[in-house]
Amino acid sequence: MNRLQLAENIIELRHQYKVTQDELAEFLGISKASVSKWENRQNYPDITLLPRLASYFNVSVDQLLGFKAQMTKEKIKECYHELASDFANLPFEEVMTKTNELVKEYYSCYPLLMQIVILWMNHFNMAGSESRQKEILKSIMRLCDRIITESESTGLSSDAVVLKAMVQIQMKETQEAIESLEEILDPKRLTRQSDGLLIQAYQMTGETKKAEKTAQISILTNLLGILGSGVNYLSMHLSDPELAELILKRLEKVVEIFETDRLHPNISLLVFYQATIFYCLQQKIPEALGELKKFTDCSIYMINQGVRLHGDEFFTKLDEWFDELDLGAEPVRNKKLVIADIFKMYENPALSSLFEEEEYKELKKRLQREVCG
């Protein structure tokens, strides 16, 4: 994490301009001993001297202090994954303290604040108590509000609205979430058609590579939307076996056609897991075990290939796009935490009708053996 580098900068600038401590002291109207104390970190200049000191060396006050209000995209990505690893390996509150210090230091770096929001959302449930979890969720909403009101990036602001709504739903503030989301997700808005227009425009200008890349991104994001919304739709109709089975068959056909169990295992896991719960509720044990086997196979593949986003022979341009994302192709949570969460899913009471089944026990053992060694 960057800290103020005033002492080092004064020394460096003096040497750069070939200025002695005596000469600098004379210009500022102070003693040589004062300059010496600044450079040895024994004291700091009076705040009223900073503009004159910066002017003397032809730098801004921020440059003199070594203060950087912004962080590069690459540094943000590096910082995020370092902190995600810390959450998996260090005491939770110790990491929260580090993240809060980072927020204070870069409070006007909105891309960083956005990633801190995502980091907290992916780890707040590790907090020791429900009240502490709520505190963190409220902190997330405050950061979202700052991004929404202060950031000049419409993309960041829109993302912050969605993330804030996710927190509102988590905190049972559902009406507020609905009001926030209805406007930006209105299916009648022409912005919903923008992908196709952009692809067409690229083709007309001969930018075929951009057209192909944009088309693949659009297909993938819509595909993930179908599966994500489909899982929610299935969960709404678990009590209607006929409709639920129809929804499930169509979702699994999409998974099969696009091979999302390899392309994007995380979304496929949700399909297989919800299917397992559905068949458990129907007391269809063989079918439930079949879906749990798919869940296990997909989990093993995802973990062993590094939980990393990637393309395939159909989506040939996605690897390039994933590398361009704010966090790159790496997962938003540390692998150790992902594995722990998957094991917890096997203990869900909704699967209790499987607990005494030998195949269920064997699947758990296989997962343990293949991902934990």
UniProtKB/TrEMBL annotation:
Keywords: DNA-binding. GO terms for molecular function: DNA binding. Residues 10-64 form the HTH cro/C1-type domain. InterPro entries: Cro/C1-type_HTH, Lambda_DNA-bd_dom_sf. SUPFAM superfamilies: lambda repressor-like DNA-binding domains (SSF47413). It comes from the Bacteria. This is DNA-binding XRE family transcriptional regulator.
